[in-house]
């Protein structure tokens, strides 16, 4: 069977870093390694990026097969808290007006009733909420935020979401301060009508070598490294375009910290050029330091690959999917 997956990298996700300022101090985010300039995405940069992807998406293989223009979706994420950006609601509204799906990654500490209502009005489709721990101590030591405030915000947002066809998932990372079991955490959120992400058994990722073992009961060296025998040896690079607040595109989210591998700036180039440069990196098996140091408990990237996962056969997935216990 002919492999329907595009030969060159094509984004199913565009991750926009509206800002790299953050009000949290999450253990699994090595912000002490951040040397990139801090700032906020301006409106001109944002609108330029969205316009370019609006034109680019028509030719994507995934949209031809799925018979629509659903991809890429736009995720507001990055190194910072998107709700710190004063234009977040305008940006979500604009993304939806251009027929993109809008996804927000947030710690919810700023998601009060007024902001929750504005998000719903703007048309947000999905929220991925980072919430580590199910009691005050676990949460404070894991994220450095106020447990009661954030929980109240999540519970209110959940009520609005259920009435407006908005999906929410709770994500968390195991660390030395969380003593609740996975099942206790699942039960805590299920009782509030919310789903919990338990992919990769909630183990931490070493973030391209920038995160140490100190706060975790894990040995990162035991995790699988990049396997250059794969055609698509990094699925995040293949399926996601990672855009910094100033328009720079980096190879993946690990490169937010120091921006040592900037592919180009979307104010100056077209997404086609990003595709071609990524294809060159993947094809030549580039031994980039941040890639060589990257250790993950599961090397797949389902957020980006899931549209293809649903369409391709097991044989077709061999180009990018790290099957468990697979030898290559």
Task: Characterize the structure shown.
It comes from Anaerobacterium chartisolvens. This is 4Fe-4S single cluster protein. Pfam families: Radical_SAM. Residues 17-168 form the Radical SAM core domain. The chain has 328 residues and is of the alpha/beta class. The chain has eleven helices and nine strands. The protein has helices at 43-56, 61-66, 88-97, 113-122, 136-143, 147-163, 182-190, 235-239, 271-283, 289-292, 302-309; strands spanning 13-17, 73-77, 102-106, 126-130, 167-171, 195-196, 240-243, 248-250, 262-265. It has a nine-stranded mixed beta sheet. Strand 3 (102-106), helix 4 and strand 4 form a beta-alpha-beta unit. Helix 3 (88-97) runs parallel beside helix 4 (113-122) and helix 4 packs parallel to helix 6. The radius of gyration is 19 Å and the shape is globular. The chain starts with 12 loop residues before the first strand and ends in a 19-residue tail after the last helix.
């Amino acid at each position: 069977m002919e492999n329907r997956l595009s030969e060159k990298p094509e984004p199913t996700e565009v991750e926009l870093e509206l800002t790299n300022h953050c009000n949290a101090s999450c253990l699994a985010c090595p912000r002490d390694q951040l040397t990139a300039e801090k700032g906020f995405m301006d409106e001109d940069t944002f609108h330029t990026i969205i316009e370019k992807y609006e034109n680019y998406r028509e030719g994507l293989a995934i949209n031809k097969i799925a018979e629509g223009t659903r991809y890429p979706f736009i995720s507001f994420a990055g190194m910072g808290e998107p709700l710190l950006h004063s234009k977040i609601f305008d940006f979500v509204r604009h993304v939806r007006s251009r027929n993109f799906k809008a996804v927000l990654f947030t710690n919810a500490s700023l998601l009060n009733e007024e902001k929750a209502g504005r998000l719903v009005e703007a048309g947000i489709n999905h929220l991925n909420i980072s919430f580590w721990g199910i009691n005050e101590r676990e949460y404070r030591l894991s994220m450095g935020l106020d447990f009661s405030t954030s929980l109240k915000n999540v519970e209110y947002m959940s009520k609005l979401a259920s009435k407006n066809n908005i999906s929410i998932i709770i994500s968390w990372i195991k660390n030395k301060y969380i003593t609740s079991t996975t099942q206790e955490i699942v039960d805590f959120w299920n009782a509030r009508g919310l789903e919990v992400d338990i992919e990769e058994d909630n183990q931490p990722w070493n973030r391209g070598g920038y995160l140490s073992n100190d706060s975790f009961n894990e040995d990162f060296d035991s995790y699988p490294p990049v396997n250059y025998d794969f055609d698509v040896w990094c699925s995040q690079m293949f399926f996601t375009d990672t855009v910094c607040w100033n328009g720079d595109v980096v190879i993946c989210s690990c490169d937010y910290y120091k921006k040592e591998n900037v592919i180009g700036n979307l104010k100056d180039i077209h997404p086609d050029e990003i595709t071609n440069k990524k294809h060159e990196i993947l094809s030549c098996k580039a031994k980039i330091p941040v890639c060589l140091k990257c250790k993950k408990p599961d090397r797949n990237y389902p957020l980006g690959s899931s549209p293809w996962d649903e369409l391709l056969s097991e044989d077709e997935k061999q180009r990018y999917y790290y099957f468990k216990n697979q030898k290559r």
